[in-house]
Write a structure and sequence with these properties.
Shape: globular
Number of helices: 11
Helix content: over 70%
Order of helices and strands: HHHHHHHHHHH
Oligomer: single chain
Length: about 230
Amino acid sequence: MLTPEEWIAVRLSLQVAFWATIWSLPPAILVGWVLARFDFPGKGIFDGVVHLPLVLPKVVVGYLLLITLGNRGYLGQYLHEWFGISLIFSTAGATVAAAVVSFPLTVNAIRLAIGGIDKGIETAARTLGASRLDAFFTVTLPLMMPGVLSGCLISLASALGEFGATITFVSNVEGQTRTIPLAIYSATHMPDGDAMALRLTVVSVILALGSLILAEMADRRIKFALGQV
């Protein structure tokens, strides 16, 4: 059985991962669509920037967030002074860190899903009078739903395991930013924390594996419903 402290870490992890996935989904759909369907000068650079969180050390991502969105950051100082919004040491900040790190995974899944859709279907819709946006919402979006859902679940699994960017950006505050990975880190620095670390590790593995299995199952079901298999 988990202790109350461990339950807090589990609930916080699920909360952070859920909202990180929800808030990053609309821009991920937009970016995935742009990368899959449009050619423009600087596309390679834009693509590289989008996927940069995948290859940068997560501590670097967290530091960039700190100097950008911290209370003295380039943007964070105005959020703090004008609107009273402070992301550091907060659950909202942990959500932002998880969203940034998992964003490229969602974009990549959506981009691949759109790339697998026959452009002729979109062209036919536009020939019948639909605008580009109408064709997207009525044709492209339903057909790319397997990729959207798969990307969301993979993003959720990634957000559940986020550590480096979170601890660098919002520190390790119990009840606010101490998600499962940070709780495990804290437990390894406690004289009697081995049992706690092991329990949370098991929970982390179950949640991550469950997300990946659900992603595969959902992908198959939606493809079957759309007649793609």
